[in-house]
Structure formats: structure tokens, C-alpha cells
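G.,

No rush on this.
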Amino acid sequence: MIPWLKRVFPWLGNVFEAVHNVLSGLWVTLRTWFKTYDPQRKTFTEHFEYPELPVPVSARYRGFHRFDLTTCISCDQCAKACPVDCIYIGKEKVEGGKGFKITGYAIDYSKCMFCALCVEPCPVDCIFMGATHDLSCYSRDGTIVDFSRLPLDVAWGRATLNPTAVAQAKVITEPVHGGPNQ
């Protein structure tokens, strides 16, 4: 009978240790919940009145890009620096001169990881990170933003990127440069 007790008690000790560890973890969770529980606490939308008033963001927040279409020289440096290849630049050779004319500048925000690596190599500082944190849409098509089709204030970096402007930019049926075969 003694060898049987030696086999059962270590197992029973392991069970008691496991139950003790689980109860200790639950106690830490409950203690933290009681410290942070506030019945008068408002929801996020009540506290910040979102979307009517913008949510305060820190000064170094990397939100959706702001792009100045007028200063871009189509050098492709931002697209080359992007680690996830989410920047698509359409350009045409300028007739009677040197350089390129930008015909399309699209960013696929379903791929973008907001690393800001595209901002640094730009020689004319036409792309920079904005403070916009929300670009809500109901389909993945809304996550692809073509800055060349946006209203001028948004495309030139004077206004922030918003879902309404992106949706209105998608309504345009003719492509900016006539398509790749023309």
C-alpha cells in the first residue's frame, strides 16, 4: 500500500499546484479589474464625440499619408523604399522636355504598415505622414486611395484624407491617363 501512496500523492500535489496557479492568475485579473472599473466611465464615442470631433493624437502619430501632388516629380523613391510594395505610381514622359508627369499615385492601405519609410527618401518632401487615424469603408476597394483622383485640397495636402473624399474619387469612371493600352 505504501508504493501506491507514493504514486498518488505526487500526482495530487501537481493537481493542487495547478489549481493554485490558476487561482493566483484569476486573482491578479480580478484585482486589476476592480482597480480599473468605473461605473461612470463613458464609452469612446461619448468621450471624444467621434466622428464629429477628431480624436486627439500625439505629435509623432503616423496616420494616413498626406501627399502634395503639385510637387511630386515621379522619382519612384517612395515606392522603392516601401517594404510591402503598397505604393503604385503612374507616370508619363513629358513631351518636349525632361522628366515625368505624374498620372496616378495610389496607396493600398490594406497592405500599408505605416512605417513611414516612404517619407524619408522623397527629395521634394511631397509625401508625409498625417494625423488622420480613420479611413472606414465597407469593402477592400475603399482601402486603395488614388491621390491623383482626389479633390484638389486633399490631393495637394491642404486637407486631411477622409472616407467621403475617397468615395467621391472612386465615382470617376475615366482613368487619369487613359489606361495602359492607350
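When you get to it, here's the other one too:
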Amino acid sequence: MDFNKFFQSKTFKIILYAIGGLIVFLAVFKTGMFVGFKKAKFSYKWGENYHRNFAGPRGGFFKDFSGGDFIDAHGIFGQIIEIDPSTESEQEATLIIKGRDDVEKIVLVAADVSIKSFRKTANLSDLNIDDYVVVIGEPNDDGQIEAKLIRILPPDGRAKH
């Protein structure tokens, strides 16, 4: 086969245009990925810094936030200020806990919640007003925390914030 004839043929030109088109397509695709990555990174960083951007610098504009940048949605550390036994079948009690900066959170305690005091398993009846606790759970649509684990802290004040 004669190479000069092949390079001047219509088939060679079609292959050359196809390769050129593929290179252009890949360059456009890569540019789109680059732009998309930059936009996603900006959105992610903006979301991560939302509270700091709109609540002001650490410590706030007008008062000290006690070093917390975010609201504790999945748990709270604080003092029990109210225990309200529930009449609903899904939960045993509702706790109101005063956390950092005197923010009060409502904690829903279901029958299957794990309550611990040191290494021992405790019961709901072991919780008392003025006890310090750590609650880990998940937020519900009403802004309450549905407890999964409650740990009762020592009464001697070592756990106070």
C-alpha cells in the first residue's frame, strides 16, 4: 500500500478530523470538570463557614460565644433543669438541659436509650435535676434532640464547664 496515497485519501482526513474532534471534546470536558470542581469547592467552603461568615468573627460582634462556632444539633453537654415524664408511648420522658451560654435544649428520651453512669448502666429514674449529663443523639424536625446515649457525669463538679 502506498503511504502517500493513504495520507491524501478521504479516509485519512476523516480519521484526522475524528481525532481532532475527540481532543477538542476531551479538552472541553476537562474544562467543565475543572469549573465544576471549583464551584463545588466554593459551595462546600461557604457552607462550612456559614456561621462564622454571618455571625461575625470568633467571639461574635457584641459578646463572647464561648468558643463554639456551631449549634450542637447532635448532642449537648449541660445541667438537667427539668424532667418531664411523658404520656406518649414512643418516649419515656422529656429533659430540658441547660448547656453552654445558658442555651436550653429539649431532649426526648425513648425507652431504648442507653443511659450510663461511669461503667454501669443506669435507668431514667437515676437522672435528677441539677445532674450534669452528656447527650448524644440526632436532631428532629422540631429542633429537639432524640437521645441515643446519655452519660451521667460525676457530681463532684469535675465535669462542669
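The mean pLDDT is 81. Strands lie at 75-85, 93-98, 104-109, 114-117, 120-122, 132-139, 145-152.

Enjoy the weekend,
O.
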